[in-house]
Amino acid sequence: MPVQRRGAAVEISELRREYVSGQGSVVAIERVDLKVAPGEFLCIVGPSGCGKSTLLRILAGLDKQTSGTIKVDAAGWPVENAMVFQDSGLFPWMSVETNVRFGLDTRGVPGDEASRRVEAALKLVGLTKFRKHYPHQLSGGMRQRSAIARAFVTDPGMLLMDEPFAALDAQNRVILQAELVRLWEQTGKTVIYVTHSIEEALLMGDRTVIMTAQPGRIKQIIDVPFPHPRDLLQLSASAEFGKLKLDIWRVLEEEVNRARAELEQ
After folding, report:
1. What are phi and psi of 33, to 5 degrees?
2. Model confidence at 232, in pLDDT bands (50, 70, 90)?
3. Where do the domains of the chain lie?
4. DSSP per residue over the chain, as a string?
5. What is the value of pTM for the model shown?
6. d(Cα 128, Cα 96) in Å, to the nearest integer?
7. pLDDT tens digits along 111-156
8. DSSP letter string over 18-49?
9. I need a labelling partner for 22 at 20 to 30 A (CA). Which of 4, 207, 223, 256 fits?
10. CATH code 3.30.830.10 for 10-80+156-264
């Protein structure tokens, strides 16, 4: 049975972010127009410095655009969201359970309800047996599972992810990619996922946004044709996947080379 999509719909129009300092100004993103459907898994790729993370931080409310508008469910901004970074960001003095519960406590969620939601979130990511462990007692993959549980437990309309698996070894990355796709298929959240990996974007996303070198603009949006549910390992070995990966690289290659040339000037 298809999951009922419960995520936020997002509409970004003419978004621009310029940073001004005593040394001059830098335009990070410019004229970004993008619509994200409710429950969509959208991936963003682009060369380093193209403004991918800036866009995500603006959506999270951690930064503010210079101009342009963001609408969520046609109701304006902000929306309830949760962000997962490359580093798990867990508080080292708190157990897994307390870390996951932290956002609920700060929102004033009643104790019984918070406990139920934490229990469900830990079960969702397979960490029930590790609830009393502290971050230093966990592997990198388990710390990221904890961070994902902390994001899901608040039931956000939108989940924002900034290269959350980039620091993991290849085996853990494959496992957590599959786990995240399973969670997304189960919950119907809107996910906006920044990555440097074309392969990761195609394995996980419904669409892939390709951004230009700085200032970041949207160069092309690719529809990912692979149906859900996905067997990520089997998919990655298919000829169709390899061809699409190469096609996207050809689109991105010019921007990567341009960004490198500007750094060398």
Report:
1. -120, 125
2. confident
3. 10-80+156-264
4. -PPPP-S--EEEEEEEEEEEETTEEEEEEEEEEEEE-TT-EEEEE--TTSSHHHHHHHHHTSS--SEEEEEETTS-S---EEEE-SS----TTS-HHHHHHHHHHHTT--HHHHHHHHHHHHHHHT-GGGTT--GGGS-HHHHHHHHHHHHHTT--SEEEEESTTTTS-HHHHHHHHHHHHHHHHHH--EEEEE-S-HHHHHHH-SEEEEEPSSSB-EEEEEE--PPSS--HHHHHTSHHHHHHHHHHHHHHHHHHHHHHHHHH-
5. 0.88
6. 9
7. 899 999 999 889 888 899 999 999 999 988 899 889 988 988 888 8
8. EEEETTEEEEEEEEEEEEE-TT-EEEEE--TT
9. 256
10. no
One-letter amino acid for residue 224 of the chain: V
In this structure, which amino acid lies at residue 149? A
